[in-house]
Amino acid sequence: MQTLDNGIEVPTNSDEYNLTDDYADAFKQVPGATLVTSQAQRDGLDKWDGRSVQRLDLEGQPVDIWDASDGVWLPKAPLTLTFTSTYRQVGTYFGEAVKAAGVSRSGRRVSLQGGLANNVPVNYDMLDPGNSATEYTLAEFDVAYAPKGSSELFTLLVNAYTCNVRVTPAGKIKISFLVAVPSKPVGTMIFNLGGLSWNS
Hints:
Layout: E1 2-3, E2 9-10, H1 19-28, E3 34-36, H2 39-43, E4 52-55, E5 63-67, E6 72-74, E7 79-80, E8 87-89, E9 92-93, E10 96-97, E11 102-106, E12 109-113, E13 115-118, E14 122-124, E15 136-140, E16 152-158, E17 161-167, E18 172-177, E19 181-184, E20 190-192, E21 197-199
Parallel strand pairs: 3-4
Antiparallel strand pairs: 1-2, 4-5, 5-6, 7-11, 8-13, 9-10, 11-12, 12-21, 13-20, 14-19, 15-18, 16-17, 17-18
C-alpha cells in the first residue's frame, strides 16, 4: 500500500488487487463529513477515530466526531443551560425572539449561544478574590462540555458594568463584578453569552 499526501491509502502496482475492498477502504478515508438526518442513522455508521458526521436534524447542523479513545461521538446533542429561578431566558428583546441560552460543541470546540436575564431584582457585591461569595453562579451545563484542567475567563459588559465570566472544569458559569452593582429591576441585567467558546 502507499499513502497519498492527503492521508488516503491506496494499493501500489505490486499489491494484490481486490477492487471492491480497495475502493471501500480508500473512500472511508476521504476527508469530509457524512450527512445524516437522525441520531439513529449516525449511530448505525461504521466508526473510526476522527470520522465526522454532520447532523442535518439539529439546529445549526453541528458536526459530530468519533473519538475512538473514549468510544463516544463528540458532541452529544446541543444542551440548554440550567439555572436557578434568579435567571431566565431573555425571551424577546424589542419584540423579537432571542436565541435560547445554550451550549453546543463541534468536535472539541464548545460555544455558548443566546442570553440570560435576571428574573428577579438583583444586586451584586464587588469582587473579592478571597471571598467566594462575591462570585455568583449564572448557569450550569454537562461537565463533558467543560474546559479541561483549568477555567476559561471572559469579560462581558452587562448594563454598563464590567462582568467577569469564568467557565469552570465542573461545568459552571460563574460571574463577578469589579464594582458593586446596586439593585436592578427584572430583565435589566442581560448576559449575552453568544461568542464565548473554548476547547473541551
